[in-house]
Amino acid sequence: MAGSFSLDISRFCNKANANVKATVQKIAMEAFKRVILRSPVDTGRFRANWGCSVGSPWAGTVNVYDEDGRGTVALAASTVNGWNGQGSIFLTNNLPYSLRLEYSAWSAQAPAGMVRVTVAEMGGVAAQVAKG
Q1: ∠39-59-44 over CA atoms, to 5°?
Q2: Which ranges of 39-84 does DSSP label H, i.e. alpha helix?
Q3: Which of 18, 14, 26 is nearest to 127 (CA)?
């Protein structure tokens, strides 16, 4: 009898861990998608330079242009979906003017930034995801 009880606890823990992982992935992907799609577009280079990574912030830049953001969102989704539940998931933009876009109203398309606006919404998003 004790063996079956411990097996039930083990199944519960595995399911709970899988649920936590899936919830984190959903919240992260929603946040990343919002940041990417809120990014101002002139040529699409800034939008394409949102790099998603696990464990430490992405350190690169790319000479790619993504005006509609679909490619960048897909790359982020690939990283988030591949996350094994260990370490932090990062979304980073290393272009030299990224801080001006976020904090200095440098673009009329995103005068309040992209990250700050998204962060302000995430409490509600997390609550929605938790409800299922």
Answers
A1: 25
A2: 45-48, 70-82
A3: 26
CB–CB of 110/97 below 8 Å? no
Q: How far is CA 21 from CA 9, 58, 61, 84, in A?
A: 18, 21, 28, 8
pTM more than 0.90: no
pLDDT, one tens digit per residue, over 30-58 is: 999 999 999 999 999 999 999 999 999 99
Decide if 66 contacts 98 (C-beta within 8 A): no
Coil/strand/helix, residue 42: coil
| Gap between the Cα atoms of 93 and 109, Å rounded | 17
| Helix, coil or strand: residue 114 | coil
